[in-house]
Structure formats: structure tokens, C-alpha cells
Design brief:
Elements (H helix, E strand, L loop, with lengths): L2 E3 L2 H5 L8 H28 L4 H16 L3 H8 L4 H21 L5 H23 L1 H8 L1 E3 L12
């Protein structure tokens, strides 16, 4: 797909600029995933209590990291940071990999893993959306499809 870069001011006038559509849905799903993970942290830490001290410390770090990896997308989405799409995709898949590690170590609660399975199912759609969406491209990358009226050169006459 051919994209044309436009100014930030021009992008802000585009009908697809900002939070809306599927982006809004993914934003609320991400907030839900973050909140659900935060609720599951005490259960995961309780499971870590029965481990030897070194593994217990590793478990606390892994659980904190798993929670922290859920923050970038919701935060960067509302700040309209240009790095949001790639940061969100990267941290989404890292969080899921970490969830797998927590499962292998016996630290993930059943509810944690159910939420992770849902996020795993949504992951490919989420990733493709952030890479290809016209709304995401206009809002975060200030670019429009070739042929978009906003891509036409401005008439200086």
C-alpha cells in the first residue's frame, strides 16, 4: 500500500484522525486486559510465596514485568505518540510470551491464563490493524493513502 506523508496539522483535519472505530475498541480491550492483570497479581504472588526465596524474587519481577508490559498501548494511544503502533505490537507479544513463562513456572492463575488466551486470539487482528489501519496511519504516522484528497498537493495560487 502506498502512503503519502502529510503535515501533522493536515492529518488533524482528516475525518479518520483520532480515537474512533476499531482503535477505540482495541483501546478499551487493552484497558480491560490491564485491569484484569492487575486484579490477578495478588493470586500470582500468593503462588510465588511457596517457592524458594530466589524463585520467589524472580516470580515477583516477572509478574511486575507482565503487568508493566500492558501499559504502553493505552498510554501511547491517548498521547498520539508516533511510536505507538510498533510499541503496542511489540509489548503485546512480549506480554503473551511472558504469560507463557509464568504458566510454565506455575505462577499464572487460571483466570490470568484465560485472559491471556483471549489476548492471544485477538493478537493477530490487533497487530494487523495497527500496521494497516488508515485511522492509525493518519493519527500516529501522519500519512494517508495515495489518492486520498488530503494527499493532493496544496494549491499555492
Amino acid at each position: 500500500m502506498n502512503w503519502i506523508t502529510v503535515s501533522e496539522d493536515a492529518a488533524a483535519t482528516h475525518r479518520l484522525y483520532g480515537m474512533g472505530g476499531w482503535l477505540h475498541l482495541f483501546y478499551w480491550l487493552a484497558l480491560g486486559w490491564l485491569a484484569w492483570t492487575a486484579v490477578q497479581v495478588p493470586g500470582a504472588l500468593a503462588q510465588a510465596d511457596g517457592l524458594d526465596p530466589l524463585m520467589g524474587d524472580v516470580a515477583v519481577i516477572l509478574v511486575a514485568l507482565a503487568l508493566a508490559l500492558r501499559v504502553p498501548f493505552p498510554f501511547l494511544a491517548v498521547t498520539r505518540h508516533p511510536g505507538m503502533p510498533l510499541a503496542a505490537i511489540g509489548t503485546h507479544w512480549l506480554a503473551l510470551a511472558l504469560d507463557g513463562l509464568l504458566l510454565v513456572l506455575g505462577l499464572a492463575t487460571r483466570q490470568w491464563m484465560l485472559a491471556s488466551l483471549a489476548a492471544l486470539a485477538i493478537g493477530p487482528v490487533f497487530s494487523l490493524y495497527l500496521l494497516r489501519s488508515r485511522r492509525v496511519n493518519v493519527t500516529y504516522r501522519q500519512r494517508v493513502r495515495q489518492g486520498d484528497p488530503l494527499a493532493a498537493p496544496e494549491d499555492d495560487t
